[in-house]
Design a protein that fits this description.
The protein is mainly β. It is built from three helices and 21 strands. The strands form four sheets. The chain has a seven-stranded mixed β-sheet with strand order 3-2-5-8-9-1-4, with no helix packed on it. Strands 15-16-10-19-20 form a five-stranded mixed β-sheet.
């Protein structure tokens, strides 16, 4: 064999890298594949707003709430975080990347070694400073955590979170294209308060609690290891006498053992009543004499991912909050002592 022919063969083998030309073992070769990502928004938001806020007096709150939630209940992703894991324990991450998506759907062309993977995807992490994507080094430890301030209550989420998981078997002998659907992982609440009979009230603070503190991405489940209390935001309303206290957070507990990420489209939020409240609003009202009245509104139905729950209540000069819905459990504490728990704005 002449020298030039030997050099040509060595060069060809060098270009092939780990892809052996002799035995055609392609297991170490990178394979080009396409992946389509799409956000699938399954929500009751419009139905809830149209049903609960149907009175003429609600029109200002309706507009304000719609504006506040437009970037939460939205099938638009600013960013997407993508991880590809080994399928053998401990299922370590093999490839991780973050991309700006800025779309409802997008396609990526990736080059991955031929093998089996478990793929996890999370959208809209960037800019949501009250949650954190953590422990992504291994598949089953990857999660989204609620962040807790050193003092005071948690603040509402600022983006709609979407996640997905998909087993992928990358093969060398076929052209492959994968579809990844991402579904919403957080939810929202709105307490609409009629203040027409509360002219002397000096201050109101609304806190909701009973929600998850973490979301496990791989198996699509929530954890409830810490008490999550979220101070609802008093959103600006342009007219009328109603106020709206709104919050975005993880879902509540459920009485179904399986995942609460909703992917079905037919009546996904129907559930039987529980024996006692699963989550609640706590309303702290400072009255004209400087005393604080605490009203607890207990909700018996789960708040699930993708769901908005609106409750209309009436505030009185006494600081008591009343509600017409007979399914809501109500507890009142007059002359409540806040201690170190809550700072009621005056």
């Amino acid at each position: 064999m002449n020298v030039l022919k030997k050099i040509w063969i060595l060069a060809l083998l060098s270009i092939a890298g780990g892809c052996c030309l002799v035995d055609e073992d392609l297991s170490d070769c990178d394979k080009e594949l396409g992946i389509d990502y799409e956000l699938r928004l399954v929500t009751n938001m419009k139905i809830e707003m149209d049903t609960v806020l149907d009175a003429e007096a609600d029109r200002y709150v309706y507009d304000a709430l719609k504006e506040y939630l437009k970037d939460i209940f939205s099938d638009f992703a600013h960013d997407v975080d993508l991880s590809f894991y080994d399928t053998q324990d401990p299922m370590a991450v093999l490839k991780h990347m973050s991309e700006i998506m800025d779309a409802n759907q997008t396609s990526y062309t990736l080059h991955l070694p031929v093998r089996e993977y478990m793929h996890l995807a999370v959208a809209n992490i960037v800019g949501n400073d009250v949650i954190s994507l953590q422990d992504i080094a291994e598949c089953h430890s990857s999660k989204i955590n609620q962040l807790f301030p050193e003092n005071g209550d948690c603040t509402p989420h600022t983006t709609g979170l979407f996640t997905a998981r998909l087993p992928m078997n990358i093969r060398a002998d076929v052209s492959q294209h994968f579809k990844v659907d991402l579904y919403m992982a957080n939810s929202a609440t709105a307490l609409v308060m009629d203040t027409a009979d509360a002219a002397t009230v000096k201050g109101v603070k609304v806190v909701d609690n009973g929600f998850a503190d973490s979301f496990n991405i791989a198996d699509s489940t929530y954890t409830y290891n810490r008490t999550v209390q979220v101070e609802a935001e008093d959103i600006p309303v342009e007219g009328g006498y109603e106020k709206c206290y709104t919050s975005v957070h993880f879902p509540s507990r459920d009485y179904r053992p399986e995942s609460k990420v909703v992917i079905e489209t037919l009546d996904p939020f129907v559930s039987l009543d529980a024996e006692k409240a699963i989550w609640r609003w706590e309303v702290y009202v400072t009255t004209a004499d400087g005393k604080i009245t605490k009203t607890t509104l207990g909700i018996h139905k789960p708040l699930r991912a993708g769901q908005l729950k609106i409750l209309k209540v009436k505030l009185h000069d006494t600081g008591i909050v009343t509600v017409e819905d007979p399914t809501v459990a109500v507890g009142v504490e007059l002359d409540w002592n806040p201690g170190l728990n809550h700072d009621i704005p005056l």
